[in-house]
Amino acid sequence: MGTRRRNDGPTQDRPAVGRHSRRMTPGRLAAIAAAGTLAVGGIVWVQSDEQSAQATGPQAGAATVKLSGTRLAYTPDKQGNRIPDFSSAGYGGGTAIPKVPVVARVAAAAGGDDTARIQAAIDQAAARPASGGVRGAVLLEPGKFRVTASLKLPSGVVLRGSGTGSRGTLLLAQGTPGSLITIGSDAPYTRVGQRASISDSYVPVGATELNVDNAAGFKKGDRIVVQRPTTQAWINAIGMDKIPGGEAWKPNSGILAVRTITAVADKTLTLDAPITTAIEKKYGGGTVWHYTLDGQVTDAGVENLAADATAFTKDPGYGRPEGGKNREAGAFASRLLTVKAARDVWAKDVKLTRFGSGFYVNDNASRVTIQGAQDLNMAVPDGLAPPPAFMVGGQQVLIRDTTVTGDRVHAWTTQAFAAGPNVFTDSTAKSVSGHGQIDAGPHMRWASGTLYDRLTITSSDSAFIAANAWDGGTGHGWQGANNVFWNTKAAKYAILAPPTADNWAFGPTGKQVPGKHDADLPAKPAVGTIVSPGTPVEPASLFAQQVRDHG
């Protein structure tokens, strides 16, 4: 998403800058001017029939879902795409967070850095034998604890406070802005053994079955990666080869969807969670493979504590200009929790004050729950693009019952090629000033299969957005696909449909508006599927109903 900035042109005392405060080189200015000339002259890149149809309005015969009696009834589109089932999101694929017994306690001290004392207690708990995946909880007793951004949680260990109120546990952030607590390593998914090619010509959105050319090496219970690579043919088909200024998308590994096989029949694999972007043979198809993930942490959590990051805001680099490294510097690095290579981990009942960001769930994380989290009075310096309160790059992530307050914030958002299904539900965000920019939706490069469910943003400048960000940021382009907005409330919404995919909005409250970057595009984007605008639909929560339907 990001802030859109317009400039009339360079002057002697004001250099030209682009969105996200990027300096505009002569080459970049020329590229944008050329794109504008193409648009004005009515000359656009060659479009497929599919693209041409989508550029005229909502997709005909789009997939829908509605309540029929006591259960949901799904209507797929002509290609078999359907609204995804999001019920597997969260810890354990949708099971209750365990109650972990206390095995160590840390008392508050009068002064000094408490980081080493807390880490020692965590390491002591980690040395205990595991029972049902858990080893024990480290209880921080009531009081204040001064902590630098370096606590690491290993498998089976919970860091638990004594409450979020005035008589509870308060972490006081110290030193250089960073993540106070980290779960998991930076390791990527690494293939083990041979790839099996997906033999279907088209695997639709929402599918939980696919066929492979050789299923001999797969069995029920295997964890696998279903890879849908980003190919040049597909980049061309969705127009992301035309982004000006050197920001065109490049072929890459694409979407890596971690799934568990629930059944194997001949060459058909049944998966525990749906595919969220169609796998099309004409755009390169896909493969299935086993993986390892070094340093993966499981059954770890953070519970029942408060944290204050006011000290982080005093760092000289806190409001640093954007230079492509915001994720790991200044306000963008000011977080309570970063989840990396991890599975079946959680955070619950935590309260943050004066953080620049809040929570990051990286793309090597799966089955994560964050619930009952408050990210309050977010500290965002003037001139900095909005940081995220809750950022998801992984899959089967559930963010629920959360509260965000601040100005110029991405409240609930996703990173590039997030594989889904992911869920943000039953949460609120509010501008402190009443008119600050607060928005939600996919942030960059085709994050797919996220549900924005029963969310409310209160601000005169609030929005739910799924659009084409074009050259914004680092060429964010189409921010996301096959996302569902269900009974959302904000001042406005822009839900657009990229070629080869869709985005859906059911019962959105607010003014429907174009995407912020639509005027820059060589062709008018299609509107997503909008159902019952201005009037909430039943059920009140799609996620809750999907969970009920699965018993």
Key descriptive features of the protein:
551 residues; mainly beta; 16-stranded parallel sheet; 11-stranded mixed sheet; 6 helices; 9% helix; 39% strand; globular; disordered N terminus
Can you walk through the features of this model?
The structure is a single chain. It is globular, with a radius of gyration of 23 Å. The protein has 551 residues and is mainly beta. The two termini are 37 Å apart.
Summarize the structure.
Helices cover 9% and strands 39% of the residues. The protein contains 6 helices and 39 strands.
**Helix share bin:** under 10%
Uncertain residue ranges: 1-58
**What general form does the structure show?**
globular
User: What share of the residues does DSSP label as strand, in percent?
Assistant: 35-45%
Biggest beta sheet summary: 16 strands, parallel
Radius of gyration: 23 Å
The average pLDDT score comes to 89
The number of distinct β-strands equals: 39
Structural class by SSE content: mainly beta
Count, helices: 6
Span from first to last CA? Answer: 37 Å
